[in-house]
Amino acid sequence: MKVLISGASVAGPVLAYWLHRYGFEPTVVERTPAARHGLGGHAVDLYSAAAEVTRRMGCWDTIVAARTQLDTMNVERFGSRPVEVDLRRMYAGISSRHVEILRGELTRILYDDRRAEYLFGDSIANLHDDGDGVDVTFESGLERRFDLVIGADGLHSNVRRLVFGPEEELQRPLGGYLAVYSMPDVFGLGNHTLAHFSVGTLVGVYGVHQTGQVRAGFLFRGELTYDYRDKAQQKALLVREFRNYGWKVPELLEHLEAADDFYFDSIAQITLDSWVSGRVGLVGDAGYSPGPAVGGGTSLAVVAAYILAGELAAARSDLPSGLRNYERIIRPLVDSSRWLSPKVMSTVIPSSALMVRLMPGAAAMLAKLPTSLQRLIWSQNAVGKVFSSTALPDYSDLLQPESSQPVP
Ligand SMILES: Cc1cc2nc3c(=O)[nH]c(=O)nc-3n(C[C@H](O)[C@H](O)[C@H](O)COP(=O)(O)OP(=O)(O)OC[C@H]3O[C@@H](n4cnc5c(N)ncnc54)[C@H](O)[C@@H]3O)c2cc1C
Fold first, then answer.
1. What CATH number does residue 9 fall under?
2. Which of the residues 267, 293, 355, 384 could staple to 176 if both were Cys, CB 3.0 to 4.6 A apart?
């Protein structure tokens, strides 16, 4: 069974790994010229169920060793003293197992143990599903036939556009924006994080211990018009929005122009009712992004990729029915993430002066409580809770004897 996966970030490599373990022949096409790796990009979270998937893949310990290692966070607002929060304690309470890791590092680790053919610097130009298989033409001109095609190509998915329709019709903007970039550690942060809240805004800076740099992040509400491919326009827009903000923002903006890993996008959900059509399916952000940075999208991508592979293996040759079973099983998790992310967004980007005033005070109060009580309170964090209570199906009886060598 040949399966083509578009996208080699998180969902794609996890899916390829498990499909290979069940005896499929996966091919992954990725538009970047080489594997994503290393220390660029933002930090993402793996909560319990997703952590368990990587444990079953044998790479959990490597992931833990490559984690961000942030230990404390200053919560700040105008007109009040900063309050320090112990992040290690907080995360221990949020999820029975949790790790924060740079997305590039996670992809590198998943890719290092690759179990698929990878085609870099290419993309699907056209696909035709005739009911028995899918004929694919790549932008490079290559033509191949697959039993199944899966889009794991993220928020701006190519497979979704080709099969399910234009992005604008399938997106629900949550009314916020997100900008992230790397810069020198001008504040001497090390493993420390700064978070400054005001009405409609969160500005954060966190240290990246592997590079000695920091990453600056801006989350804010608004209604903006921009071209998502035009980085210069987006940088100008960020400067316009934050020119007069104060706090440490002038120092952050000084390094914006030089940033070559600048990311800017609206915080939007994908609202498809069904992420399966014949012999084509979507997994991860491509099918049901709950919104970047607010809904546990990485954990959802990992868990869903694991379940998709297992259901395809269980369905054997009836792959379309495997796709439908996958959709049915993960729908409650997708619904929870979609429901939660606007709520998470309204906490991390406070919508009222009262919320802003409460934020450092609540953090200070929490910091003084005994550890057990802190854990209890943090454990109410909804995203962590969803993944702590997700039971992973066991597909181990479907595993094929494997060669331990990764595919070159
Ligand atoms: C700034 C930011 C902060 C975030 N913070 C968090 C967080 O704190 N916690 C968390 O859990 N999640 C966070 N997320 C979300 C998280 O990154 C995603 O949910 C997760 O990466 C989804 O994985 P994925 O594999 O589905 O898609 P992606 O990681 O988006 O990967 C898609 C892949 O497809 C490739 N691709 C795109 N188009 C094509 C094409 N035409 N052909 C071939 N390949 C293609 C891309 O190059 C990419 O490699 C954040 C996202 C952003 C942008």
1. 3.50.50.60
2. 267
How large a percentage of the chain has pLDDT more than 90? 66
- Ligand 1 atom nearest the C-alpha of 153 is 34
Which amino acid residue places its CA nearest to atom 19 of ligand 1?
297
Residue at 238 is within a domain: no
Spatial separation of the C-alpha atoms in residues 90 and 384, rounded to whole Å: 11
| Total number of domains in the chain | 1
For residue 391, is it within any domain?
A: no
Is the CB–ligand 1 distance for residue 298 below 6 Å? yes
55-71 in b/e form (b: 16+ CB < 10 A) is: ebbebbebbeebbbbbe
32 lines ligand 1 (CB under 6 A): yes
50 lines ligand 1 (CB under 6 A): no
Q: How much distance in Å is there from the Cα of 228 to the middle of ligand 1?
A: 15
| Torsion angle of C-alpha atoms 105, 107, 112, 113, degrees rounded to 10 | 130
- pLDDT interval class at 38 (50, 70, 90): low
pLDDT at 39: 65
Q: Using most ligand atoms within 8 A of CB, pick from 182, 298, 302 the residue to mutate for ligand 1.
A: 298
pLDDT at 405 over 60: no
- For 65-112, list the strands marked E by DSSP: 72-77, 83-86, 99-102
Instruction: Give tens-digit pLDDT for 311-343.
Output: 999 998 899 999 999 999 999 999 999 988 888
Q: Does 387 reside within a domain?
A: no
CA 178 – ligand 1 centroid, Å: 14
Q: pLDDT per residue over 149-189, tens digit each?
A: 999 999 999 999 999 999 989 999 999 999 999 999 999 99
Side-chain-side CA neighbours of 253 within 13 Å: the count stands at 18
- Domain span at residue 326? 2-69+96-170+270-346
Domain membership of residue 353 (yes or no) is: no
